[in-house]
Design a protein that fits this description.
Length: about 425
């Protein structure tokens, strides 16, 4: 188990180009594996989770190669082969849930499993709609993995989700792509739309009317060449850090600005930070651009359920900088944080208290009091990449050194994180 020492910084300076967006990389990897022809991706995510997706794609018959920094995937033209052994999803809930949607339409039996953290995460939320399609999906009695899938011919469904989840939506759309008829999915709270955009990029027709998304089955997917935008959820740590220092000068280039993911920038602006966006362009339906975040008078922030669904990955770091605001940060409607790689509500509360902060914990969120001073401490990351990185940011303004335990877990999404943090920190 590794530890990372974070020392207080005087400032943040520099320019960064971040690895590819984790969410987009997952979807491109899966759809390229299912498509006809060879897809080529620049700036594919370097995180361990996305490598799990590529490993599963390879085990299912797609040819995955890495060539001069590019990821090349030769697809199977719609028909995977039965894997020789159970598919290891590692720590990746995205891999397990979304791949289940694809495997539901394949004519063989298979099993999905993962590490100890993933094996504790809820999977009944994808089991329910996939069974309605006609696939046989088996889990443990408590709805946890391993997941046994017997796929085959599917019939289109209309499904209304009671959980705001882009992963469930993706599983339904990926199964619907292979079903007979038109599948529709209703979401009461809009979630990230990377799957819809990726399906269109690969040639599928998909429609959206307000909160209802529909896809016709038995469509062909054709290979694409694409550059994956920089991961805005990874950039979030640096954006929040930059907002803390009065003389910061930090620019992140080529970052994804998808409107269903870029809510963080609006939130930082409303909090009081100065946000500038430059050189915005669109590729394969995804917006990218250069972003600069500067210090401002950080006042207060209240996040409700609709906003929490759009910020689910960024909530830990927003909470972690709460003590440095004037009036604090309140997060509600985010019970989904309880069933991530760790119980992120409890983990954030424990970390902040270890650093001397006052925190009120709710079943569905937190209130972090503002205008507090933090001191260095030993922080348990609970093996959760976003907790490890969030408290590295909080530590930059604390008094004294902070030790992040099990820091290697950052590699799940962002192996370069600590190297880049040291690169831009003026101590």
């Amino acid at each position: 188990m590794t530890e990372e020492k974070i020392v207080p910084a005087k400032n943040l300076l520099g320019s960064l180009q971040l690895p590819g967006d984790k969410s987009i990389s997952h979807r491109y990897g899966m759809l390229a594996a299912l498509a006809e022809g060879k897809s080529t991706f620049a700036n594919f995510s370097t995180g361990a989770d996305c490598q799990s997706t590529l490993a599963c794609a390879s085990a299912l018959g797609a040819k995955v190669t890495r060539n001069n920094g590019l990821v090349e995937i030769e697809g199977v033209g719609g028909n995977f082969r039965k894997p020789a052994s159970p598919l290891d999803c590692g720590n990746s809930g995205s891999t397990m849930r979304m791949m289940a949607g694809i495997l539901a339409g394949q004519d063989f039996d298979c099993e999905l499993f993962g590490d100890s953290s993933l094996m504790r995460r809820p999977m009944a939320r994808v089991q329910k709609p996939l069974r309605q399609f006609g696939a046989q999906i088996e889990l443990k009695p408590d709805g946890r993995p391993p997941m046994q899938i017997r796929g085959g011919k599917l019939k289109a469904i209309d499904f209304a989700s009671d959980v705001p989840s882009a992963q469930v939506k993706s599983a339904v759309l990926f199964a619907g792509l292979q079903a007979s008829g038109i599948t529709s999915y209703d979401e009461s709270i809009r979630t990230r739309d990377h799957s819809e955009l990726a399906l269109r990029a690969f040639g599928a027709e998909i429609t959206r009317t307000r909160n209802r998304i529909s896809i016709e089955g038995n469509q062909r997917l054709l290979a694409i060449d694409a550059t994956v935008p920089g991961d805005i959820s990874s950039a979030a740590f640096f954006f929040c850090a930059s907002a803390l220092f009065p003389k910061s000068n930090l620019v992140v280039q080529g970052v994804g600005l998808n409107p269903t993911r870029a809510a963080l920038l609006d939130v930082l602006s409303s909090l009081g930070a100065k946000v500038s966006m430059l050189n915005v362009e669109e590729k394969n339906g995804e917006l990218t651009g250069t972003v600069k975040v500067e210090h401002g008078r950080l006042r207060s922030l209240k996040i409700d359920a609709s906003m929490a669904a759009l910020l689910i990955d960024e909530l830990p770091v927003l909470a972690a900088i709460g003590p440095y605001t004037e009036e604090g940060i309140e997060i509600r409607g985010a019970r989904e944080l309880r069933v991530k790689e760790s119980d992120r509500i409890a983990a954030v509360a424990a970390g902040l208290r270890a650093m001397g902060a006052e925190v009120q914990e709710y079943e569905d969120g937190l209130f972090v009091k503002g205008n507090q001073k933090l001191h260095g401490a030993t922080i348990d990351s609970f093996g959760d990449h976003r907790i490890a990185m969030a408290f590295s940011i909080a530590a930059l303004r604390a008094e004294g050194e902070t030790i992040i335990k099990d820091s290697e877990c950052a590699g799940i999404s962002f192996p370069e994180f600590f190297t880049l943090l040291r690169q831009i920190s003026e101590v």
